[in-house]
Structure formats: C-alpha cells, structure tokens
Amino acid sequence: MTGQRTGSRAAAGLVGLVGFFLVWEVASRTGLVPAYYLRPPSVVLPTVVRLLGDTGFLRALVATVFATLIAVAVAVAVAVPAGLLLGSVTWVRRAVMTLVEFLRPIPSVALIPLALLTFGTGPDTKITLAVYGGLWPILFNTMYALDELDPLHVETARAFGVGRLGVLGRVALPSAAPFVLTGIRLTFAISLAVVVSVELFSGGTIGLGQFILEASSGASQMDEVLAATVLAGLIGYGANAGLERLNNRFFAWNARGGGR
Amino acid sequence: MTPTMLQVTDLGHTYQSKDGPYDAIDALGFTVAAGELVCVVGPSGCGKSTLLRTVAGLIRPSRGSVSLHGTPVDGVPEDLAVVFQDYSRSLFPWLTVQRNVEFPLRGLPRAERAARAAEALAAVGLERAGRKYPWQLSGGMQQRVAIARALAYRPALLLMDEPFASVDAQTRFELEDLLLRVRREQDTTILLVTHDIDESVYLGDRVLVLSKSPASVVAQLPVDLGEHRDQITTRASDEFVELRAKVAGLLQGVPQTEPVAP
Amino acid sequence: MNLLKGTAQRWVVFVVAVALWELVTRAADDVFFPPPTTIAEAAGQIWFSPLFGEHVVPGVGRMLLGWALSGVIGVALGILLGRSRTAMAYLGPTFNFMRSIPPPLLVPFFAATIGVTSMQLPTIVFGAVWPVLLNTVDGARAVDDTKVDTARAFRLSGPQWLLGVVLPSALPKVFAGLRLSLSISLILMVVSELVGSINGIGNQLVQAQRDYDLPTMWAWIVLLGVLGYLFNTLLLLAELRALAWQPRHSPEAQSLATGG
C-alpha cells in the first residue's frame, strides 16, 4: 500500500516536472519570453546530455563538486567540536558569542574580491570562503542541540557512572547528530553557492561557475548556460535528497526531525 | 410536548480502509428534544465519534439522515457548536482566551462580540482569564474556555465529544457540575458522547447505550435524578446505582430482565 | 551585578580580539591586512559621504524590495498550495529543484536575458522566493485535525480559514523561511552587483579591488556585516512580536539558517 502510494506520488511529481518543461517550452516557442535567451527544453535537455560527455565541462563539474565536498568536510570538522564546546561550557559561549554574532552576518560572497586579491585564484580560496559561509548552520545546530538535550538523559547516564566526557560523547553527540545532519544539508547548499560565486567572479579558477560565465558571454551559448544551471540544480537536489534519506535511515528515532 | 431538536434516522456510515470496507455505525436512530441533555455511551472504538461527526455535518453519512429542527443536515449547520476532547489542539494558541471565545462570532459588531465573550467566560467562571493565552491555563481551565466558546456561539445544539476525558478526576467533577449549571441557566440542548458510564448517568436526562461496532442503539434509558444533582449524594442514591448497573450490563451484553424503555 | 559581569565577559573578549588584531596587523604591516583603526578611518570617509546615497541606498533598497516581494509571493502561494496534497504532489519536486539551484548561478542567465544593469531585482526575487514558499507549505500542512474540525464546525469562510487559522499556524515556519531568504537576498545583492551593476556595494567592492584600496574594501565588508546584523535583528524582533503567543519560543533555536 505504502509502496504504491510513494509510487503514485513520484509519478505525480514527474508529471509536475514534465508540465513545468512544457510551460517552459511553450513560453519559449511562442516568444512569450525571447527564445534567444530562454532556450526551450527541447534544446536544453539534449545539451545537458551532450555536456555530460564533454571533458571540459566534466572537469569543471568535478572541480566544483570536489571543492564543495572538501569545504563541507572542513566545516564539519571545525563546527561540530566548536559547537560542542560552545554548547557545553557557558563561559566560553558567553565570551565568544559576541564575536560570532559579528562575523556571522557578513555575507561570504562579499569577501570574494578581497580573498582573490589576497590569496589568489587557486582552489583553496574558494574552499576557504565556502567553509566560512557554511560553518554557521552546523555550529548553531550543534550548539542548540545541546541546549535541547534532555537533562533526564544526562542524569540517567551520570547515575550509571558515566563521566563528563563520556556524557558528551555517548549522550550529547548522539542526540545532536540529527541536528548536525540538518545543518550539513544547509551547509552543502551554502558551500556550493559560495564556490560557484567565486568561480563566476574570478577568471582563473576552473569550475561550473566559470563555465557558465564563459558560455553566457559568448552570446550564442545560452543553451549551455541553462543546461549547466539545470545540472547544478540537480546536484543540489541530489545532495539534499541523499542527506534527507540518510536522516530517515539513521535517525528514525528522532521524530522531531532535528532542528532545520 | 417539547419540539424535536435533533432527529437521527437509520444512520449508517462505512469507511473505506485498506482492509476493505468497515462499518462504524449502522441503523442508528434516535431523537433529542429541545432543551434535553442526552448522553451517548458505548464501548471504546464503537463509532461514537463517527456518530458525533456525522451529526455535526463534518462527515457525510453513507446511509440514513440527520435533521436539525426539521432541516436536513448537509454540511455543518449554522447553529451548532462542538466541544472536542482535545482542548489543547482545539483552542488556537495564537489567540488570547478572549479572542478564542470571540473566534466564531465574526460578523457581529465588536462590542457585541466582547459582551458575548465576557458573558460566556463568566458562565464558566473565567471572567478574569480573558487576556491570557490558553497555554497559561490548566487543562481544566482550557476546556472551560472551549465550552465558553461554544456557549458564546449560542448554538441550538451543542455537541460534546468526550469533553472531560482528558482532565483529572477532581476537575472532571467540577466541569460536570459546571455543565449542569450552565445548561440549567441557558437551556441549551446537548448531545454528549462519553465512554464513562457514571458520567453518562450523572449528566444525562436520557442515556443512549450503543452496541459494539457497527454501533446501533441498544437501549434508551430515561434518567430521573431531577434537575439538581450532587456529586456525592446523587452518585450514592439508589436510582443512580441501579441505572449505572443497568447501563454496565447493557454494555457487556447481559440480557435485561425487564423490558427496556423505548 | 551578575548582569554587569555577564556584559563584561561578553565584551572583554571582543575588545581584546580587536586590540590583538590591531597589534598584530601593525606589527606585520601587511598591505592586505590593514589595522582596524585604518579600516575605521576608511569607513568613516565612505559611510558619511555621498557614496552612501549613491551606492548603499539603491543597492540595499533593491535587496529589501526583492526580499519583500519574494516574501509576499512565497507566503501567498505557500498558504494556497500548502493545504492541497494533490497540488504539492505535482508541484513539490519542481519547487524543490528550483530551490536547489545555487542562487548565484541565476546571475549569468538573468544578466544575459534582462541586462546587466537591471537584473538585480528579478534575480533576488527568483532566488529568495523558494525557502519562504516551501517553509510556508510545511507550516500550512502542520495544521492539526482538531483545528480543521473546529474551523469547519464554526463554518469559517475560505479567507477566514486561510488567514485566521492556516497562516497563524504556519507563521513560525514562515519566519524561518524569511530568515533564509534574507541571507539569500543579501548574497544575491552582492553577487549581482559584483558581476555588473552601475551602483551598489558590490560595485564599490570591485572598484576598490581594481584600485588596490584595501582599507576601503574592508570598510565595505564591515558595512555589509553591520547591515546583515541589523536586518537580522529587526526580523528577529518582528518575529518575537508576531509569535509572542508561543509558549516556549526560542527564536535563537530557529535562527540557525543565517549562513552565507
């Protein structure tokens, strides 16, 4: 029954997607939107397929995805311990939060010109900026997960003779895990956005953003722009869906869904 | 002879579930006179809620008909109010108590709304709680707000779905007495669904006993405990004890020695 | 006394950090890292000059307008579609896909289609609408059955139902979406101005990059941080007011989504 239900839901979603492409096609063909720019999907979708066989494009794609994955990994490695620390030691938190509140609102894309000037156009520049941008959701989710920690769970563990560090590792971290995973979903989206932003803006670095920028300046290649944009969307969609599935698989016990 | 408020005729409802059709209620028939308080009691899961939701017009019955003061019910009638068991979800957390009570009164002038809400809140003893939010009140008080909201609407028929099942025993007694008092003062017609035998006898002018699902009316017992009832003396009286035994017997399917009143 | 101690603890670290920064940058004497006093000087010059009116006002104005439009469109559509399972079964995957496109990648397309100087507003609206829309749908779905029955029992009209019950129920989620959209709007404001605009903070960042004027660059970045902090705080205050009815509302726990 449920299988059938999921099936029909997926079918409906597919119908919706096809409908979206149809509207796009009609809008483009009838000249509702200038077809010169908004190429119809009948042109764009074959281009997607062609690009997937194009080495130049694939290199750009891989470069972007890799940079994003590294940025996410670094963000996790930095933000989870930092979040655990800030979440469990009050005075550190009180002291550091003012700094954090000041740093967080700076949009990382605003740092692009400065970073390019200072660090050059190598991949470490975009990774650094992506880490900066993507750090915050994990940091805050971990911190607030500790705030939401059920004191009864802590007391239970303490009553069984578990020490302070043991509580952190065996009670706090597992309770925080779903929240961390939710944070990672956001972090991935932000990191990907920052990486392509750097690529869009700097001439020298290989990546999706650079590819799209070049295609868009050669005016006849709008189909490549749209195709590459669609593919970037698919990567984001896939990453989000994959992480969500991971959440459902491992954190089914967490009915609340873990932060956002 | 008082006019008939509610007439339920040959009512039946079938749910379509994955295990095939399921009859919740079947061949149900009864009437409620104006000003009467009728309690419906039945074993859990017997379809009491389905009955109430059909009467309220929230679901369309598969068979039979419901009519409210002579008009067939098709969709939720205009002059009907419902008090649900789950007060915490039935009240709107973003509205103050006062605004919750005024909620169904849209379209009335502001002053009139405020006056009616104040009156209804006073009737349930909450005249001072108007500016609070529901979550600042205890469970029993929240259910009083829900009752006040229903009263402020001045319905011809008040439906109550296990209204006191989610509060503690002491509060439950208080709310039962509150209902009896309000009903004396305002002359409301009430159909109350419960699984609690004592409650049905204590509150009702008449008790309808339902069978197991598909539910139908097994018996209708008039309750002659008078207008003024008391938690201690009434519950200790012979009539009360006898009636509750009779209802309990009916619920367990024990054959009755004397014919049951129609 | 305790309050004083808390405030002191909070600001001591901040002041110490700034002082350290000053000392280190002075000692290092690196052109790329000007000391805070130099940045403050540059900031004083540009913030209180005609540049503010020429660049900050139009750019931030576009950002706020775009954000507001995306909020209105997102909430309206979300409330209308959120209560219909069928509608969302068809449209959900498409919306989710649109949200997954890294927002900065919209810039080349809109720049080519609409023109570099006027694409900022549509880019912001298109990029920022999805989080509000999808969060509102989520919130609208969460109306529990008892409230549905209560509303029906009191014979609410369509508009009363949507505005009086569905919208308030969805409001916490709506605010979470608005917060995400705000950071996306800020990102898109900067990126779209970096790539090409006749005015705006991003435009000035590029200008400063070309002139190798690092203190000015730092000053614009700090201004962006201040603006981001300001808008976030105002949104938080609005949220606190709008959700004052919530029993245990911790806006902090929901303010996780301000990366970028």
Automatic annotation (TrEMBL), chain A:
GO terms for cellular component: plasma membrane. Keywords: Cell membrane, Membrane, Transmembrane, Transmembrane helix, Transport. One of its GO terms (biological process) is transmembrane transport. Signal peptide: none annotated. The chain crosses the membrane at residues 12-37, 57-90, 102-121, 167-184, 190-213, 225-243. The keyword Glycoprotein does not apply. CDD domains: TM_PBP2 (cd06261). Gene3D superfamilies: MetI-like (1.10.3720.10). Belongs to the binding-protein-dependent transport system permease family. This is Alkanesulfonates transport system permease protein. The lineage of its organism: Bacteria, Bacillati, Actinomycetota, Actinomycetes, Pseudonocardiales.
Automatic annotation (TrEMBL), chain B:
Residues 6-237 form the ABC transporter domain. Pfam families: ABC_tran (PF00005). GO terms for molecular function: ATP binding; ATP hydrolysis activity. SUPFAM superfamilies: P-loop containing nucleoside triphosphate hydrolases (SSF52540). It comes from the Bacteria. Coiled coil: none annotated. Keywords: ATP-binding, Nucleotide-binding, Transport. InterPro entries: AAA+_ATPase, ABC_transporter-like_ATP-bd, ABC_transporter-like_CS, ABC_transporter_ATP-bind, P-loop_NTPase. PANTHER family: ALIPHATIC SULFONATES IMPORT ATP-BINDING PROTEIN SSUB (PTHR42788:SF13), TAURINE IMPORT ATP-BINDING PROTEIN-RELATED (PTHR42788). This is Putative nitrate ABC transporter, ATP-binding protein,putative. It comes from Actinokineospora spheciospongiae.
UniProtKB/TrEMBL annotation, chain C:
CDD domains: TM_PBP2 (cd06261). GO terms for cellular component: plasma membrane. It is a multi-pass membrane protein. Pfam families: BPD_transp_1. SUPFAM superfamilies: MetI-like. Keywords: Cell membrane, Membrane, Transmembrane, Transmembrane helix, Transport. The chain crosses the membrane at residues 64-84, 178-198, 218-238. The keyword Hydrolase does not apply. It is found in: Cell membrane. Residues 56-235 form the ABC transmembrane type-1 domain. GO terms for biological process: transmembrane transport. Belongs to the binding-protein-dependent transport system permease family. This is Alkanesulfonates transport system permease protein. It comes from Actinokineospora spheciospongiae.
